[in-house]
Each structure stands twice: as structure tokens, then as C-alpha cells.
Amino acid sequence: MDLIAIVVGLHLFVFGICVEGQGLSYNFYENSCPQVEAIVRAAIQPIFLTDPTSPAAFLRLMFHDCQVQVSCADILVLAAREAVVVSGGPQIKVALGRRDSPFAPSYKHADSLLPSATTGVDGMLQLFANKEMTVEESVAIMGAHTLGVTHCLNILNRLNQADEGGQVQGMAPGFESFLRLNCPQGSLASNASFVLNDPTTLTFDNHYYKNVIRGHGVLRVDTEMIMDPRTAMAVKRFAANQDDFFQAFSSAFVKLSNSGVLTGNQGVVRKNCNALD
After folding, report:
1. What's the rounded Cα separation, in Å, for the pair 66 and 113?
2. 216 counts as catalytic
3. Span 45-81, pLDDT tens digits
4. Where does residue 12 fall: left (phi above 0), alpha (psi -120 to 50 degrees), or beta otherwise?
């Protein structure tokens, strides 16, 4: 089932009758729709059961939306929050009351606002600092990569940047060989083929950081985080203590979900997530 269609359906079902209040709050729908969180949970749990890859998709969709404002607002945050929980991650309490963007950015404009596969630690820290995250929270939010996959198209450029000895800096030789085998240069299927972000790709845990320490980081930023003194300590701590990771991730998730939101009389409440009314 198309993920956007799911979001559209949920939005029409829930928020067509649940609009009230001003600004973000934890009881925004207390009078108009007090069971909103339970309704969302009940609606998406069957999706999670029939498609084990959907939690990663919902989480990515929310992350991308927070960069470009193209969603149905609250419904996407709640769906992403449930995606984390159903995958074994922390319970995250989020304030509600977001309204939709009155503009629909172009595909190219949206792409220009999203971090690329070549983004390193400097770019990552700047991106999340703009959303008022600490260095620790920035490292924690990257832990969302514990779910899902990375398409080979986003890896080929990195594999081309080997040193004189033929090795990619910071990447374990055995893992590099694995990536080259699964993402061959010149492959016509590089956009369709992929590699797992970590061995427990369906479980929200701290294995992402353990992989980074072992030199099994898939993206450039993964490898740089353990090599950069600004981020290395947080990577090691999260690898050693999953509870610390969950706590920092929860804080970062809330900050990301609150970044640049439209509330009150700002924005609109769309009837169709895919289009402006």
C-alpha cells in the first residue's frame, strides 16, 4: 500500500474532526478528540504487522517533512512516534497542534533542503544545531539509521574515494568488500538495490553505534562521527548504553518535530495531504 495514501487516509479520518486550540500542547485535542493517539495507533498497527519495513518508512517521512514542510503535520509525527515504539524504541511524548504548510515545494526544492549522502559531521552538526540540538542530540538523532536500508546509489560515490592503498578511510576492509560486492560500480540497479543499515534493521536499538565503532558505517557521516572528537564520545557512550541513547534520541525527536512548526492561524488544515485545497 502506498505510504502517502495511508497518511492521507489517516488524516481525513482523524483530523477532519479533530481541530482546535492554539499553539503546541500536550492536551491540544483533549476536548475535540481525546482518543486521537489511540486512534492513530490502532490504524497503523496493522500496517506495521503486514509490512515490517513500514516503521522505517514512517520515521524517514517524518524526518524529511521536518526539513521541507510537505506533510499532514501532527498525523506524521504521531505515526513516526509509533514506528519507533513498535520497533522496540523509547516511548516519546510529543506536543500536538501543528498545521500544514500552505505551500507545496517542488521536488527539486525539497531535495535542496535535505542532507545529501555526502554530508559529513560538519554539515550534520550545523543542520541539527539550526534545530537547537546539542552535539549529543545530533549524534542521537542519527541513530534513526538503526532502522531501514541505504540505497546503493548513495554509497557509490564514497566507494570511489579510496586512498592509495585502495581503502576507504575509516571503513573496515571486510565491510568495504561487502559493500563493493553488493553495490557494484556501474550497476544499472544502483537505485533499486540496497544494503542494511545494521544487522538488526527491523529493531530500534543501539547496534548502529556498535557498527560505526567497528568501521561498518555505511554513509560518510557514520564513519566521521567516530573519528571526530566532537562526536566520538557520544557514539561510544550510546554503543555501550542503550538507555542513554534512547533518552537522548527522545529529546532530539521532540526538538526535530517542533522545528519550524505552524500553529494557530498559521498554515492550513489540508483535506488532501498530496495537494493544496
Report:
1. 10
2. no
3. 999 999 999 999 999 888 877 766 676 778 889 999 9
4. alpha
**Closest Cα to residue 90, out of 66, 135, 115, 59?**
59
| Nearest-10 crossing angle of helices 220-227, 232-240 | 100
- Burial (CB < 10 A; 0-12, 13-18, 19+), residue 46, is exposed
pLDDT tens string 158-204: 888 766 666 778 889 899 889 988 888 765 555 678 898 888 999 99
Indicate whether 105 and 184 sit together in one domain. Answer: no
Task: Give the domain range for residue 211.
Answer: 121-255
State the pLDDT confidence band at 240, using cuts at 50, 70 and 90: very high
Give the global pTM. 0.86
Cβ neighbours of residue 30 closer than 8 Å, sequence gap 6 or more: none
CATH number for the domain that contains residue 158: 1.10.420.10
| Grid cell at residue 50 | 503486514
Residues 125 and 97 in one domain: no
Rounded to the nearest integer, the mean pLDDT of the chain is: 84
Strand ranges, E, within the chain: 149-151, 194-196
Domains: count for the chain: 2
C-beta separation of 25 from 96 below 8 A: yes
| CATH number of the domain to which 50 belongs | 1.10.520.10
Q: Of 64, 109, 151, 216, which one is the catalytic site residue?
A: 64
Those residues with Cβ within 8 angstroms of residue 41's Cβ, 6 or more apart along the chain or in another chain: 82
Q: Say if CB 41 and CB 82 are below 8 A apart.
A: yes
Over residues 82-91, the mean pLDDT reads 96
Tens-digit pLDDT profile for residues 95-149: 998 878 777 666 666 666 677 888 899 999 999 999 999 999 999 999 999 999 9
